[in-house]
Design brief:
It is found in: Vacuole. This is Beta-fructofuranosidase 1. One of its GO terms (molecular function) is beta-fructofuranosidase activity. By secondary structure, the protein is mostly beta strands. The strands form 7 sheets. Strands 22-1-2-3-4-38 form a 6-stranded mixed sheet. The protein is built from 6 helices and 38 strands. Bound molecules: 2,5-dideoxy-2,5-imino-D-mannitol. The site of 2,5-dideoxy-2,5-imino-D-mannitol has 16 residues, from β1, β5, β15 and β20.
Length: about 650
């Protein structure tokens, strides 16, 4: 079924320049009173005056927690911080230029990504009525290249008893004969989490505009005995079991709260996607991790640099990645291990790197990731949701909440043999222009250097740093127990760090977001490198959750320290050492916006002289994000 007549809203957006889209006043009949007030304020011509603070509406009430599902996770962390007098310009600035966002309203998890008949499809958790979580439907957009997007009408609305309280997250499976099955969680009229199926109404339509839910069969899976009604969600893409030609398996996240607060993944077997049988045992379970959301299980090749289909058979050079979104701490963890279909188990290669204690896909504001195998380019691509860390009042004022991070290719890191490499899809590079290269810039200890580069709010930066070997050797004192989050951030000083870049900074650095390395020398003389983001000074506003994020990053012998940073208004995504450690920050500068935003290099170490071996900065064009031009659909020439 297609969305309930949202097309009238699309025509408005056609007339609006992309960076003004949130001002458009539409869907008024769907808006709650508080949101309506915000819309009226945003429509007020007076609000064009940058100096006039936009008035805050009363806080709306998001229903996520009560519904038993995660939503805006920073609500409640802001304490009694007074609302900042946001001006229209500041809020307009926050809208991104090359990250995927719907035209307006609330978005969360990416759902069912796939490549079909020449188009990439992204579905996402979407509230068609407001910019807080609720009324969850599946938004839908298509792209030729994963970067430029055409918005389509809502693919699935919560309009059946079996998804009345929300069309929640799910995944696509493409069968060998090309047929497409979508499995998703429905929160029923009684808030029971069940699994449902939907199919394209017209499989010949490359845009997959209309979807048919199977009223005859839904729900196809209900919570099994012993599982709580609100702890059973987010079916994965199905994989071919290998037992025989027609049997498929898929996993669903859950938890067992009877004893150890253990998160777990249950596996179901099906032949026709209509009848399902629970496979004995659990795929994997970890005590203390709580509810597992958005489980993802996929193979990676340990030697080749291409991706594998979800159904690729186990083989000596194949490992399986198990990714889990932990509802308790709102982070996406992954482990690398072996999958044994015959006894329904996944076993981590290293138990010390199991779910909840090992690697994260991203150490920042990043959650509910979902990957897909792109048969078009033979690669695995993962999408992740980056929510807002501002207040819900601010989201209402903006008229939107959340972005998707740039889709990232996923590869096994054959160099370290232990982790994944996540890297922006190559198509992103097409947005680069006006690149400027700097080489061999000295960065002595305790310096801050402005980088002359005009226009610093949409950037792609690649930088390589080298520490002066003699300062590393001369550092005698052991530096143990460093931790990005608790060790003073960019302002803290150690012998060999921190050093890196300050982005989205104003000229006096009253605001800055620090992206940096910190090297610690252990008692045994070994170096451990940390990669961190410090958001503490990212905004003069206080009604924002600001954190210091990060972790260790492997640096192998002979490697320089390298980082890629994507800056796009209110999001900063960083990839250290080719994507071994990734961090995403949401930031809301008030002074360092538009032409006032600057870039700096800094070295706050007490001893280490650092050289910036090379640094390339590209400006980034805005990606195309617009409602589908129906005129062109027939020609498919977009
Ligand atoms: N979001 C969906 C759920 C999922 C959660 C609801 C993760 O299906 O568990 O919007 O963010």
């Amino acid at each position: 079924m297609s969305g309930r007549d949202l097309d009238s809203t699309h025509s408005q957006f056609l007339l609006s320049p992309p960076r003004q889209r949130h001002r458009s006043c539409c869907l008024i009949r769907l808006l709650p009173l508080t949101a309506l007030l915000a819309v009226i304020l945003l429509c007020n011509p007076l609000s064009n005056d940058d100096t006039v603070p936009v008035l805050s509406p009363a806080p709306p009430s998001s229903r996520g927690a009560a519904a038993g599902v995660s939503e805006k996770s920073t609500t409640g962390m802001l304490g009694s911080a007074p609302a900042f007098p946001w001006t229209n310009n500041m809020l307009v600035f926050q809208r991104t230029a090359f990250h995927f966002q719907p035209e307006k309203n609330w978005m969360n998890d990416p759902d069912g990504p796939l490549f079909y008949k020449g188009w990439y499809h992204l579905f996402y958790q979407y509230n068609p009525a407001s910019s807080v979580w609720g009324n969850i439907a599946w938004g839908h957009a298509v792209s030729r290249d994963l970067i430029n997007w055409e918005h389509l009408s809502v693919a699935m609305m919560p309009d059946r008893w079996y998804d009345f309280n929300g069309v929640w997250s799910g995944s696509a499976t493409i069968l060998p004969d090309g047929r497409l099955v979508m499995l998703y969680t429905g929160s029923t009229h009684e808030s029971v989490q069940v699994q449902n199926i939907a199919f394209p109404a017209d499989p010949a339509d490359p845009l997959l505009l209309h979807w048919v839910k199977s009223d005859e069969h839904n729900p196809v899976i209900s919570p099994p005995e012993g599982i709580q009604f609100k702890d059973f969600r987010d079916p994965t893409t199905a994989w071919h079991s290998g037992e025989d030609s027609g049997t498929w398996l898929l996993a669903i996240g859950s938890k067992n709260d009877s004893g150890e607060h253990a998160g777990m993944a249950l596996v179901y077997r099906t032949r026709d996607f209509v009848s399902y049988e629970l496979v004995a045992g659990v795929l994997h379970s970890v005590a203390g991790t709580g509810m597992w959301e958005c489980v993802d299980l996929y193979p990676v090749h340990t030697e080749a640099s291409f991706g594998l289909d979800t159904s690729a058979a186990s083989a000596p050079a194949v490992r399986h990645v198990l990714k889990v979104s932990l509802d308790d701490d709102k982070h996406d963890y992954y482990g690398i291990g072996r999958y044994y279909a015959e006894n329904n188990s996944w076993v981590p290669d290293d138990p010390d790197l199991d779910i909840g204690v090992g690697f994260r896909l991203d150490y920042g504001k990043y959650y509910a990731a979902k990957s897909f195998y792109d048969q078009n380019k033979r690669r695995r691509v993962v999408w992740g949701w980056s929510g807002e860390t501002d207040s819900e009042q601010a989201d209402i004022l903006k008229g939107w909440a959340s972005v998707q991070t740039i889709p990232r290719t996923v590869l096994f890191d054959a160099e370290t043999g232990s982790n994944l490499l996540l890297w922006p899809v190559e198509e992103l590079d097409t947005l680069r222009f006006a690149g400027k290269n700097f080489t061999n810039l000295p960065l002595p200890a305790h310096t801050v250097k402005p980088l002359e580069f005009a226009g610093t709010t949409q950037l792609d930066i690649m930088a390589e740093f080298e520490m002066d070997e003699s300062s590393v050797k001369a550092t005698m004192e052991a530096d143990v127990g460093y931790n990005c989050s608790t060790s003073g951030g960019a302002a803290g000083r150690g012998a060999l760090g921190p050093f890196g870049l300050l982005v989205l900074a104003d000229s006096i650095r009253s605001e800055q977001t620090a992206v940096y390395f910190y090297v610690a020398k252990g008692v045994d003389g070994q170096l451990t490198t940390y990669f961190c983001h410090d958001e503490l000074r990212s905004s003069n506003a206080n009604d924002i959750v600001k954190r210091i994020y990060g972790s260790t990053v492997a640096v192998l012998r002979g490697e320089v320290l390298s980082v890629r940073i994507l800056i796009d208004h209110s999001i900063v995504e960083s990839f250290a050492q080719g994507g071994r450690t990734c961090i995403t920050s949401r930031v809301y500068p008030t002074a360092a916006i538009d032409g006032a935003a600057k870039l700096f290099l800094f070295n706050n170490a007490t001893n280490a002289a650092v050289t910036v071996k090379s640094l390339t900065v590209w400006k980034m064009r805005p990606a195309l994000m617009r409602p589908l031009d129906h005129h062109l659909v027939g020609e498919q020439s977009l």
